[in-house]
Amino acid sequence: MKYAEIIVDISTQALDHIFTYAIPKELLSEVHVGCRVVIPFGRGNKEHHGYVMRIKNQAQYHEDKIKPILRVLMEADLVEEQLIKLAYWMKEQYGSTLIQALMTVLPVKAKSSGKEVRYLHLEIDDRKGQALCLEYEKKHYVGKLRLLEAMRKDKVISKALVKHSLHIADSTIKAMLRDGIITERAVRTYRNPPTGEAAALPAHRLNEEQQAVCQSFWKDYDAGIRNTYLLYGVTGSGKTEVYLQMIEQVLLSGREAIVLIPEIALTYQTVQRFSSRFGEQVTVIHSRLSKGERYDQFERARKGEVKVVIGPRSALFVPFAHLGLIIIDEEHETSYKSESPPKYHARETAIERARLAGASVVLGSATPSVESFYRAGKGQYQLLTMKNRAAGAILPEVSIIDMRKELEAKNFSMFSRKLHSLLHDRLAKGEQSILFINRRGYASFVSCRKCGYVVKCSHCDVSLKLHGKSRLVCHYCGYEQVMPVTCPECGSSYIRSFGTGTQKVEEQLKKEFPAARILRMDADTTKGKEGHEKLLTAFANQEADILIGTQMIVKGHDFPNVTLVGALAADMSLFEQDFRSSERTFDLLTQAAGRAGRGEKAGQMVIQTYQPEQYSIVTAAAQDYEAFYKEEMAYRSLLSYPPKSHMLAIFMASEKQDKVETHARLLAAFIRPFCTPKDKEHCLKLIGPSEAAVYKVQDIYRKLLYVKGVYYEDLVKVKNRVEQYCMEQEIVKDTRVYFDFDPMTMY
Ligand code: ADP
Ligand code: ZN
Ligand code: ZN
């Protein structure tokens, strides 16, 4: 006998329950994972629809208690079937509960709030209307009369207008509804991307490189070949135009497209380029949408009302029925990895979704992730290359400044002499500059200069950061306190902030360039829904000469008047204890260089660093991705890091310190035997247990194990065994165990 695990009716409430049903012999060939079936449910054995999640040979409990599946539904919803299969795949590949995976993949059903517009319709003809008016007049029904007169003119009026402009009471409307004189109907309006405001942008005539890239895609696509392509094109090479024309082809073939863009780059400009080409067929999904609005957009996609969806990672699960193409722009961005279970990567998940849907995937970047370039090299992805800037603009001139030499020359400013003189020059010419520090944690911490005491968060293992003049904030848990006036340890009043935050840059800049108009963009200045966008718009409108910020400001924004970009302390991200830190530094600096001189004017970039020889800085300055890739791969191979090898992080967290310590040791002991190689190829390596980089966060203690192996599947097996072991040993009772495959950050 075979059994099927089934979830009943997909709604968020029901997801927690998985039921086992028997598969009757005659249905064996029809029942498969993801298909819809009819089952008897509950005491009354009412017929319900359900989805098959898994098929197995054994049932956990008494076989005679198990009910059989009644029949298989033929009109299965293909998209839902695909998404369920995808959820199952994600659960397996990344480690999570099935429910977590399903919740990630299936749209959460939610009513949209306040997006419904209600209209009143006049239901009587004009002769009747006239008679009724006379009657109302006689009876002194002023409200009814006013409404009826208005309705006779317009026939359909929005209810809100009736109430607020005509000042008609609810009771009056109700009475007329009751009499059948008017009816009320709701119309759903959907939030649409901005269209029409800017002039429609015409398609570019593709240049030779773009043409070649599109040709190889089109040729495959028309021949029914579905593939994963890596579009490696330098900044400004015109990747967006290529995406647009690929999508055009896909729409012509009657299929739909999903475009993933990192949330941070999901700006008005970007969206405008898509909607000015495809108009109403495009919709945007972003994190500011309410659940209801989001659900509406997903429904529109399911019904085929829109054909192109643009959005961050989660837009991958838009229920298009005829998906033809998934584009992932800036595919190297770390935000494509989910931070909560299942910790999926949008890249592989897109490839799996595309496989299930019969679609192609295009990964685009000026600085492809080392993973993708490696796979392209092995032929797993097809490499498409664009080496030149489309609009003919030249790459900026980049200089590396050794900050140690500045100190030797008695320059104590945070701006090198070169950067200072270039800033001066740009101000004189009326051109704009961007200065950035390259990470958020670089904000200043507070310590006592006498005894060395550092003000730390009382719930986490980290120092508090100074915001404004006197607010101390924990970047891990949000805990806040006021800055102490004297040292809590020794009582000294020499308690000061250290480090250079964006605020300090601003202060120093004001001192050195009093006449400059400065905008600062960081967590403090971008509070509120559109704070971000407002600042960027102001800068784009040239309301300021210099924009200061963190790495946020150099990603995805296009300011034609910017001709100078300064990276202050470019090497900060190199100090992170992380095998990806060089890659991140290279990406950031290359992207930043791309911001300089996007218009007609040539640009310059200054990289200030204490490690001028470090390869990620040198190769970024030379804008030489391939040189970087070579060095980076050598390092990763040497230390068996991804993509040369795969890595599984097992992360344990508990309020109880002794529990997490014991369980970490237990798990290590459990895993170790798998690491003795039977054959060398499948040899695994266990690292740890060790404390997470920040051991305590929000009063929770965190331990880690890492397992490395050449084959991803071997690590999946380890995960499955650990999962089971944790259940059996009841480890899960007081310790949460998470999995992260090929992690983006070290914990
Ligand atoms: P990328 O995304 O590769 O950094 P963009 O798509 O933003 O590059 O294109 C850079 C600039 O080049 C844009 O202003 C775009 O309008 C322009 N552009 C793109 N393709 C062409 C073309 N074929 N001819 C002229 N200009 C182009
Ligand atoms: Zn002190
Ligand atoms: Zn904290």
Write the layout of secondary structure elements.
Elements (H helix, E strand, L loop, with lengths): L1 E7 L9 E6 L12 E6 L4 E11 L14 E2 L5 H18 L2 H8 L10 E7 L3 H14 L2 H13 L1 E3 H6 L5 H9 L3 E7 L19 H15 L5 E6 L5 H14 L3 E5 L7 H11 L3 E3 L6 H12 L5 E4 L11 E7 L16 H12 L2 E6 L4 H8 L4 E5 L10 E6 H6 L8 H13 L2 E6 L8 E3 L16 E3 L3 E3 L6 E3 L12 E3 L4 H11 L5 E4 L9 H10 L5 E4 L12 E7 L12 H15 L8 E6 L5 H7 L3 H14 L7 E9 L2 H15 L12 E14 L2 E10 L2 H17 L7 E6 L6
Parallel strand pairs: 9-14, 9-15, 10-12, 10-13, 11-12, 13-14, 16-26, 17-24, 17-25, 23-24, 25-26
Antiparallel strand pairs: 1-2, 1-4, 3-4, 3-5, 6-7, 6-8, 18-22, 19-20, 20-21, 27-29, 27-30, 28-29
Helix pairs in contact: 1-2, 1-11, 1-21, 3-4, 7-8, 17-18, 18-19
Bound molecules: adenosine-5'-diphosphate, zinc ion
- The CATH architecture name of the largest domain reads 3-Layer(aba) Sandwich
Oligomer kind:
single chain
| DSSP, total strands | 30
Tell me the distance between the termini. 45 Å
State the major sheet.
Answer: 7 strands, parallel
DSSP helix fraction: 25-40%
pLDDT under 50 segments (min length 5)?
Answer: 190-199
Question: Helix- and strand-based class?
Answer: alpha/beta
Q: What proportion of the residues form beta strands (DSSP E)?
A: 15-25%
Q: What is the averaged pLDDT score?
A: 85
Principal-axis shape? globular
The CATH class label of the largest domain is: Alpha Beta
